[in-house]
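Final report, closing paragraph on structural work. Over the funding period we assembled a curated collection of sequence-structure pairs, and we close with a single example.
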Amino acid sequence: MRLLFFLLFLPFALSAQVTLAGAWEGSITVGGIHSSRELPMELYLIVKGNFIEGRSYVRTPDGELVQFDLKGTFHYDHSMSLQEIKFVGDENNDYLPKFSRQYQLVWKADIWDAEIKGFWQEITGETFKRYRRRGRIKLKKVEDPGA
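Its predicted structure, as stored:
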């Protein structure tokens, strides 16, 4: 009887799992770790084993959309480290960012409230630079309309 019950509800349990891959949206803070100044941000992630590729989208206060390709590593404790590796501009976008970022993030794989939270910092050769740009990130999983 237990086996029948288990087999009956197994498809529902499997379909309710949240994956890291896909679209995420939320905000990124600018102006320091304790800043409350937020910009809209989206991430699209592709996971291959413990490697992650994707793209970040940040909307600046003046309306420019800044896009970077990302690469990184996913760890078994649900943490990840990502780095912006290539600016993705287009023919309509003259905006060139002054720096790129690296991210230290944690994925909360909750079927009701999945989120990615963590910190970012400017990539620079001067690790202890006094005015190194830093901030926070908080993203929620975008629901798949086809699910």
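The CA atoms of residues 53 and 73 lie 9 Å apart. The radius of gyration is 18 Å. We thank the funder for supporting this effort.
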